[in-house]
Amino acid sequence: MSQLTLRGGEFLLREAEPRDTFIYEDFTSEDLLIAQAADEFIRGEVLPKNDAIDHQEEGLAVQLLKKAGELGLLGADLPEMYGGLGLAKMTSTLLAEKMSLQASFAVSTGAHSGIGTLPILFFGTPEQKKKYVPRLATGELVGAFSLSEAGCGSDPLSARTKATLSPDGKHYLLNGEKMWTTNGGWADVFIVFAKIDGEQFSAFIVERGFPGVSVGREEHKLGIKGSSTRRVILENAQVPVENLLHIAGKGHHVAFGVLNIGRFKLAAAGLGGCREALTIATRYAKDRQQFGKSISEFGLIKEKLAEMAIRIFALESAVYRTAGMLNEAFHGIDAGAENANELYHHADEEFPVECAILKVLGSEVLDFVADETVQIHGGFGYTEEFPAAQIYRDSRINRIFEGTNEINRLLMLDQMMKRAMKGKLPGMMEAAQAIRSELNQPMMPSPDPTDPVEQVERHVKNAKKIILMTAGMAVEEVGMQLQEKQEIVARLSDCMIHLFAMESAWLRVRKLQEKGLDATIASAMMQVYAYDAFDAIEASARRAILSFVEGDMRHILLTALKRYARRIEINTMELRRQIAEYVIEHERAWSASGK
């Protein structure tokens, strides 16, 4: 693994630097040309067929997947030796964002390129990689991922699908049913999880044509109707022993490893959906006349457009910051090296906290933007004649995909603690103890900074203290039972989500200023987001504190919280008006590059 500027989870302990942070405005003209090719494909080939996709016209999805493969759009994250483009993680993230404009097709391509292909790249034998990955890269084969079962959606290790070795030792015989398999109707290759002899949780590469493999009917879904979601039925399915993926009994490495990248890419796709929805909502608001003028002139409509843009800005900042961090982890891995799988595994498991944060943030921002898009459209937003309705119903699945948001909230703190105990997050316990020792010490007041970037910097630093103080005391008071106190864990995770997004926006504005770019609107969005996020962090921390401690210690913690959470007051209404005027004029979210 390459030397990392920040290791996974260290954003809570260390101050990040703008120069080490990737932002959207760092993209080169070459990167943007690659993204333009994806954008032109989606707008030219996919969006005109929206209704046909949504009605699952026979063969259309596979035809479009193959066209995407011919353009290289399915192999962005795959090395060149296996037919991929070998792009940097930032550029492949940009492609994922551009590919998201038709949600059903985005789900199909995302499942294929991510969890349908990466398990073989990260964990396969050289023979498995040569056999499958190049054909998956071009779209000759379509991939899928079969993990969930009817009784174990969020607990895959309790799976009942069983694998037994055939008498001649040449095949594993798989028996069971897998639920919710995206691409189930047209996939050629499935990554299937089963327990060998009912005990060893393992992964297998299962071809559609293997004897004993079949699929159920299409699920009738609320949204993403153009994607295929079916059960995979395994009845003495004959899987060659050489198609065991990774190590017997180590299937959890495969399942949980690639889900990190899947969660991150889901956030990138959500970002693309947010951008498109904001543009659609803005254009409608400008065209819609009420009381003799455009509704875009009304204050409450402006407030909605501004808030949508602000949350998109924070999400975008966090997504591309994380893309840069992931790129550091994966950079320099020789796909042909003997230890390539080990290197992929280490890189893939470095940022589970950040990937979980992005999954929750991206899906919840998208849901907010989709909901406001419907609201701005009014009654027309509730009809299928306008795009708002489809945006709304397609967005909802994202809070369930790739582990529910509730599971991801529990995962964040759990992964933080595990990394600290394994020595992968040095200094966490010490940092929490340092905050603990401050509690009874007087804090010398300092003058409030007047520069907006310095104001947000103070909020970022104090937010980290709030989280370390609250989490540290929760561990001290609740002990090993903390993970069972899900409400407390969720509130701490909410704090981390707001912190990471707030710091990402702040780092972006600082870097824009260092580049000499006009950051006026970016600074306004950073200020408003930070103000509201800091409020949310204080509220979540207070609720957590009130739930696990009483008496004098409660008083001490609440007093310290009040001290750390002292805000620098700003006029968020006026800043939102400025942001709204920009959005209305340009009909899009903000970017210094104008792209």
Q: What distinguishing features does this structure have?
A:
595 residues; Butyryl-CoA Dehydrogenase, subunit A, domain 2; alpha+beta; single chain; eight-stranded mixed β-sheet; Butyryl-CoA Dehydrogenase, subunit A, domain 3; two-stranded antiparallel sheet
Would you give an account of this structure?
- Among the domains are: 143-248, Butyryl-CoA Dehydrogenase, subunit A, domain 2, CATH 2.40.110; 423-586, Butyryl-CoA Dehydrogenase, subunit A, domain 3.
- The chain starts with 28 loop residues before the first helix and ends in a 9-residue tail after the last helix.
- Strand 4 and strand 5 (200-207) form a beta hairpin.
- The protein has helices at 29-46, 50-54, 60-70, 89-98, 103-113, 118-123, 126-138, 251-287, 299-330, 340-348, 352-377, 387-395, 405-421, 428-438, 452-478, 486-514, 520-548, 551-564, 572-586; strands at residues 143-146, 162-165, 171-182, 189-196, 200-207, 213-215, 229-240, 244-245, 289-290, 293-294.
- Helix 1 (29-46) runs parallel beside helix 4 (89-98), helix 5 packs antiparallel against helix 8 and helix 16 (486-514) packs antiparallel against helix 17 (520-548).
- It is α+β, with helices and mostly antiparallel strands.
- Helix content is 55%, strand content 10%.
- It has 19 helices and 10 strands.
- The strands form 2 sheets. Strands 1, 2, 3, 4, 5, 6, 7 and 8 form an 8-stranded mixed β-sheet that branches. A two-stranded antiparallel sheet has the order 9-10.
